[in-house]
Amino acid sequence: MPTAADSSISQGTRKSNEGDERTMDGLVKRVQQGGLVPKNSTVILGLSGGPDSLTLLHILKELESPENLNIVPVHVNHQLRENADSEERHAAEICREWNLPCRVRRIDCRSIARAQKCSVEEAGRTARYRIFDEVAEELLQEGVPKERIRIALAHNADDQCETLLQRIVRGTGIRGLAGIPSTRRDEKGYAIVRPLLSTSRKEIEDYAAEHALRPNYDESNDSVEYTRNRIRRELIPYLEKYFNPGVKEALQSLAEIAGPEENYMEEQARTALAALQREAPQDERILDANGLRVLHSAIIRRVVAQVIRECSGDENLRYTIVENVLNILKSENPSASVNLPGGWRAERRYEELVFRKVAPDDEHAMEGRHHLRVQVLKKDSAAFEDVRNAQKEIVPCAVLDYDKLCREYPEPEKKLMLRTRKAGDRIGIAGGKHKKIQDYMVDRKIPKEYRDWLEMIAIGREILWILPNSGIPNEVEQKKGRISQKYQIEEGSKAFLFLEITDCL
Amino acid sequence: MPTAADSSISQGTRKSNEGDERTMDGLVKRVQQGGLVPKNSTVILGLSGGPDSLTLLHILKELESPENLNIVPVHVNHQLRENADSEERHAAEICREWNLPCRVRRIDCRSIARAQKCSVEEAGRTARYRIFDEVAEELLQEGVPKERIRIALAHNADDQCETLLQRIVRGTGIRGLAGIPSTRRDEKGYAIVRPLLSTSRKEIEDYAAEHALRPNYDESNDSVEYTRNRIRRELIPYLEKYFNPGVKEALQSLAEIAGPEENYMEEQARTALAALQREAPQDERILDANGLRVLHSAIIRRVVAQVIRECSGDENLRYTIVENVLNILKSENPSASVNLPGGWRAERRYEELVFRKVAPDDEHAMEGRHHLRVQVLKKDSAAFEDVRNAQKEIVPCAVLDYDKLCREYPEPEKKLMLRTRKAGDRIGIAGGKHKKIQDYMVDRKIPKEYRDWLEMIAIGREILWILPNSGIPNEVEQKKGRISQKYQIEEGSKAFLFLEITDCL
Asked: Which residue intervals make up region (Disordered) (chains A, B) (predicted)?
């Protein structure tokens, strides 16, 4: 709660246009000192109109004159919620009041989702980032130098702490503990910054109240996210009550420690890798195994993980995959080998560690080990509604209608198999029909060398879920896999079979 | 569950004395390959007789001939539990059956606890480790070379995962995520090893059942630990159910990743520190601030943390303390300073970062920020019994009788102050009397330069809890602090005031 002293300080701020730092609001000053929005920047601000983005806009406005900022609020109307249009008007109105040129963009999330066969949330997210890049390109055209442009997003410390907890429980290394980055370059090279990443949701709400901002309180894209919601509403309050009332700050500190350490270790590993790498034919990477073995064990693991990531394009390496490669490095068997994601394989070739793309007729086995979570949820269970929404997440999970499944297979949860393709495999498609997996692979243009690598959840020859795989060209299926439409859940579904993959490095 | 194939393999093991590795039990082989108990070692094994230590003993016995191990089981009778003596007989009997020379030692935990003014659990733990060292010294006398001696303890993967969760929720850096080390040297330089650290409690129990071992199932020293128990019985099952059934494996992997990374980063920081250090008078450490500033931010933080740890002797640095020093390093104020634990201070002296022991008459302020958890628990609350035991933990917490407090101070939980000493401060001692804090400090031989640094929880001039501080020579109070005896809880206590410090680096 703001004390009398606090509020007199903040009143000072509102009057201050002379850039007197001593009279500035704590939060404004913190953003200023964070250095993510340097003087003379042009800041594209994702303005949903919610408390986070509206607070960030207000802070930038406070900084505007002393910092000579050029603020470009961008409101993306997702045309999803009933009051989407009134929210658009509201955002535009605030910008008008504050004398800022608001750019409004409308996207049709539902059409994009249909076209790209992804969830509307995901369609919205992709389109939103694309729009920020488009605005950045426009600014470039208008003569703003690229290095002055910042895309500012209003993620806060609570988002950060939820991300960390989610990763810790699902499985992560130091990489994942670094959390949401406060600054990064997007694919087009624009700097994305998050100036509120160390500010709590509570501080933001206090700021918004104190400055009489009028945010749209229900504009939140992740309110539909299953795991995230349970973390926010249940796990964190539980941890605060029984273990540590400062658990959020503790997690935030952990991210602040892990971020630079991750960055440093990756740099060290990159240097080591460069020195170990030998000339190799295309689709092959060769490392000096002896040179690798004498390095510090932490560096060995990171070098191996870097190579696998680069080969496979898989950013979410499972721990066991890296361990398997480390084992063949240690192995006394000079021809040990291990399968990697994306149709690659690591092999010992005497004193070389070789990563190569394998032909599909190579002998192979299922690599690594998945943690597949299987749950049957009845309509009266607390998690039922959450899980209905979980399928829309980016997280690799599948939600199927349990009763439909039972009609074909009594106790289907006991019959699930995780395996690669077999002759005669088929998957349910729209209209109650089936498609051969072979045809699916052709339709989806999955390269031949990947086809024997795709993992699937099957009952007999019926495929319920083709697991996410970097070999699937379709972006959504690469991340979510492909779920049988035959057992798709509907409005009236009374029970779900919930499948989820966890444990990433 | 062991399948038919499994059990035929393990029968093979039991018969095998020829060291044929192919017929060896999986767990035996894993211990062998872990390399923590090399061939020709002499292994001092802490044998409580519980499933963990009995399984470890059985595994070492299986390895005995091929590895030429010399197994020395040591049973410590803590003389606490009703059946302590029958457990002693049981352990001795098993060793006789297996033809191993069991050494039995008895300790009087209650007397030690009274003498050292610590909990019986802590007294037991310290005495246990001391006994292992004594046995090691005996072996040395008998002609066993020191480098061949291993002190083997039977901590398992579940212990590891509980430790990690406890640290994550309380606050930790990468250091804490490294968890329980699988190998370390104790103060006398003996190697302590934990060959079962990557084996789950379930695997151990399966092994014990399969091999018809007869463990004492209730011998567990941490069964009385509050936080640990809630993590084991409540938090982990909850995370397994709603987030990830493989959460324990995920945490174990995290420890296995963090361990070597911690070790590597510390090495890097040590090298950097050596290069930055300048000649300094006693009780002072001087670093080249410019040289420090140009390093990678992860290394800067670690160098600073190393120096603070070395100065203060405080191994559990809070995040904010290190951050404060980093801030004065960045500060444009050439004479910024910050207080450190143990009566030290970090100062900018132009281009030097100086750590020096300060005189007690120096102006000072309360450093860092504690997360002090305050809870009032009534007898009918679920946590009541747990909390009664929590006071016996090593964790910095204080449990006071709430009703006794209320008789002196209505709503005492609202009147708590965290501060350093003031004239006239007193603390309750046995017999309903008070002692001046000044006298306490003299009695406890607290060096003068520390006295103004001790933090206390007070109501008015009455001290309820002197917080743990590295400046207190008494080992227990260094870790637990000193709690007022006036409000000590008793059998009939109906409500507790529970105070706990969290958030360590």
From this structure: 1-24
Establish whether B159 is an annotated binding residue.
Answer: no
Q: pLDDT tens digits for B7-26?
A: 222 233 333 334 444 457 88
Lookup: tokens for B194: 């934990």
Number of domains in chain A: 3
For residues B39 and B179, state if they share a domain. yes
Asked whether residue B52 is marked as a ligand-binding residue, the answer is: yes
The minimum CA-CA distance between B28 and chain A, rounded to whole Å, is: 18
**Predicted ipTM?**
0.72
A238 neighbourhood in chain B, CB within 8 Å: 235, 238
CA A291 to CA A280: how far, in whole Å? Answer: 17
Write out the residue range of the structural domain in which residue B227 sits: 4-253
Give the angle subtended at the CA of A18 by the CAs of A15 and A19, to the nearest 5°. 100
Same domain, yes or no: B337 and B375: no
State how far Cα B44 lies from the chain centre. 21
Q: Are residues A68 and A184 in the same domain?
A: yes
pLDDT band for position A393 (cuts 50, 70, 90): low
What phi and psi values does residue A18 have, to the nearest 5 degrees? Answer: -95, 0
Nearest CA in chain A to B247: A169
8 Å CB contact of A373 and B245: yes
Nearest to B249 among A249, A263, A503 (CB): A503
What is d(CA B242, CA B394) in angstroms, rounded to the nearest whole number? 31
Q: Measured between CB atoms, which of A166, A253, A261 is closest to B265?
A: A261
A437 in Cβ contact with A425 (< 8 Å): yes
Domain co-membership, B72 together with B148 = yes
Is B312 annotated as ligand-binding? no
A320: closest CA of chain B, how far (Å): 9
| Residue B342 marked ligand-binding | no
Residue A467 lies in a domain: yes
Chain A nearest-CA distance from B191, in A, is 20
Q: Contact A227/B243, CB-based, under 8 Å?
A: yes
Q: What is the CATH number of the domain that holds A297?
A: 3.30.465.60
Q: Do A260 and B298 touch (CB under 8 A)?
A: yes
State the Cα angle at B81 between B75 and B83, rounded to 5°: 75
**Which chain A residues are Cβ-neighbours of B253 within 8 angstroms?**
171, 173, 319, 503, 505
User: Residue type for A479, please?
Assistant: K
Helices (H), A68-155: 84-97, 109-116, 120-141
Beta partners for residue B355, in sequence order:
B285, B346
Q: Which residue has the tokens 């495999």?
A: A425
According to DSSP, the residues that pair with B150 across neighbouring strands are: B43, B191
Q: Would you say B2 is a known binding-site residue?
A: no
pLDDT tens string, chain B, 505 residues long: the values are 233 332 222 233 333 334 444 457 889 999 998 899 999 999 999 999 999 999 999 999 999 988 899 999 999 998 887 888 999 999 999 999 999 999 999 999 888 877 776 667 778 888 999 999 999 999 999 999 999 999 999 999 999 999 999 999 988 999 999 999 999 999 899 999 999 999 999 999 999 999 999 998 764 544 446 678 889 999 999 998 888 878 998 999 999 999 999 999 999 999 999 999 999 998 899 999 999 999 999 999 999 999 999 988 777 788 878 988 998 888 776 667 787 877 788 988 888 999 998 765 443 334 333 556 778 888 877 677 777 766 655 567 888 999 999 999 988 988 888 778 888 899 998 888 899 999 998 888 887 766 776 888 999 899 999 988 767 877 778 778 899 999 988 888 899 998 877 644 3
Measure CB to CB from residue B503 to each of A172, A242, A246 and give the nearest one: A246
Nearest to B264 among A299, A373, A503 (CB): A299
A61 and A203, same domain (yes or no): yes
**Chain A residues within an 8 Å CB radius of B299:** 264
Query: Between A and B, how many CB-CB pairs are < 8 A?
Result: 150
Contact A261 B261 (CB under 8 A): yes
Q: Are residues A145 and A216 in the same domain?
A: yes
Strand positions, DSSP E, A166-209? 183-185, 191-193
Residue B65 sits in a domain whose CATH number is: 3.40.50.620
In the block, residue with structure tokens 């250095």? A35
